Amino acid sequence: MSFFQEVERGASFLPFAALREHFGFVPNLFRRQTLLPRLIEAEAGLAASILFQEGALSRIQKERLLLTVAAATRNWDGATSHYQMLCVLGEPEERLDQLLSDYRQAGLPALEVALLEFATKLGTNGASLSREDVAELTIHRWTDEAVLETVLITAWASFLASLSTGLDAAPDFEPLPLPAAPPFAAQPSRSDHPGDRAGPYLKAPVIQPGNFPPFAFLREHFGFIPNVFRAQSLRPDLIEAEVEAIRLLLLTEDHLTRWQKERILLVVSAANRNTYFVAVHSEVLATLGIPPDDIDKIAVDHRRAGLAEADAALLDFAVKLIAEPSEFGVRDLAALRSHGFSDERILEAIAMASFTNFLNTLQFGLGVTPDFAPRRVFQPVASKFPNLLSPDARPTRGSDAADPDAEAVARVQNGDIDAFEGLINRHSRRIYRTLVGILGNPEEARDAMQDTFLKAFQHLGDFQGRSKFSTWLVSTASNTGLQLLRDRKRVRSLDENAVETDEGFRLQQIRAWGDDPEQLYSKSELRALVEDHVMKLPAKYRIVLVLRDIEQLSIEEAAAALGLGVPALKSRHLRGRLMLREALTPHFAATTKGGAA
Amino acid sequence: MINCADFMLEIGNYLEGDVAAEIRAQIESHLAHCQTCQVVYDSARKTVKVLTDCGSFELPEAASKSIAVEVMARIRGQRRNL
Fold this sequence. Notes:
The structure holds two protein chains of two kinds. Chain A has four domains: about 15-195, AhpD-like (Up-down Bundle); about 210-365, AhpD-like, CATH 1.20.1290.10; about 395-490, Rna Polymerase Sigma Factor, Chain: A; about 515-595, Winged helix-like DNA-binding domain superfamily/Winged helix DNA-binding domain (Arc Repressor Mutant, subunit A, Orthogonal Bundle), CATH 1.10.10. Helix content of chain A is about 60%, strand content about 0%. Chain A has 28 helices and no strands. Chain A is elongated, with a radius of gyration of 29 Å. Helix content of chain B is about 80%, strand content about 0%. The longest helix of chain B is centred in the C-terminal third of the chain and has 21 residues, at about 60-80. Chain B starts with a helix and ends with a helix. Chains A and B meet through α20, α21, α24, α25 and α27 of A and α1, α3 and α4 of B.
């Protein structure tokens, strides 16, 4: 039950001989690509360098990585193959079962676990990887050579997973009874500072293109040597295999055209939120005479890029294969066939999308910066394997209604930086109020506003729409403001223990207010009066008063924004209101100015 | 029947309109004959109204614009250095 038939290639087909030598057989995944032998040639070349070549990691370490990443990305056929492979290599069966359910419990030394953790994160949400994750491996004394191999193995796992989905090759082994959902979870990246994703993370000795044919080839065909290849110079054989794969998969035009394949590379990279490959291939295409604006449109939304229907359908197919592998199926192939695509061309599209997945993962793992200023900077978003990652902020009541900012937020997340300006303008007043309420000082509030919006921009990738954007933004502002307060030691503690042991607040003013207090003063007098007395309240009450009564956040939203429990929030809110009542009573009591009015 | 101390425990929820019908009835009957609690409640309610209506802590339009410009300049600057 495969999407593609096998064509007999004969015993002399060299890639099969190599695969047979290393695996003992030719896996079905490769047999299903015999319509286009050059695809197999490219893949076998990569396998030889990444998997079979002994380097810093042993074959058994590599297979463990492949098994763990396959399980984490729900690639069960792949997991089964790597499981069997590890059996052959002598890995005890109890450990294999543990690796499938939770690699941390597999009795492996801490440094091996760290390697699996890194690969799981890179494989499930590469865009979120940062320099800190690489530093973690260095702490465990892994060399740069070992990290490079781990990145390559994980990228290879991404390649295989997409091929496996796209080809639906019959499994080589009786499928294992695998756990329905892996209980282990990749930790979200600790750092979200964009600078922490500016690599390269690993050392890379300079190789002169004159002495190294793959670099000369890249310069000839792309006009330059992309940083992603320079960053792998610890292992020239890897670069050689990758450049050969580029020649065979991207630059050979016997079925899909170069431009069709470049478009697949663009949309898949954008779907993976890979800023690097979108930037670099935009530049490559620009040198081929394709206007940057056209390229940009395709990367952002190929359906609105004015492409012919068949070309747009090809890109739908590629994006679905990569972004929604669990939904991909025979109907997607049928859709392409109905547009007149031959099996060879469909096969090539699968290989191209899978190869792009490989390249994207490689770049995320190496952290290389684009060779050209990117027109779009993609922010990481939640993993497409969301059950593996911890949830974001608590859901709030506001999440029920549609978020009026959702569209602008999505545009920024897709790299349209200018759309962020609209969000600033729409929310600057409420963010100012929040901050002045917290800091009690207009000047400081304005400075803190800038920090708030910058922080919000940097962390926008973490925003998953479980609360309204405005609530999330107010929460960011509160955190910024509270941190400033703490830094200046103006409040000793905002934690819940401090709430009820209060400084003996007692009701003192029992004078009745007039019927219509707001008529006693002009609008501006009233405003000044309220501001003055709100500012004099202790910070912890002032903050709650501002969020609840001025910002009109719900109890749950305000509690979430301040990191307080609901009872503590309600208690502070009431206290703040009653304190303000005390302070305002002399100005509004019926017997004072009210009597004369 | 509730007394003044009970009322002060409930005033927060009562201001929010978040009390059960049965308690509401008891609060209202207490307020009807307790002048002190009546004054506290009425002035607290008016405090909230003044606070929410007065438009305090407004950011001047010009300041808002300049902050947006400044932030966008910094974001674009960062992007160039990425």
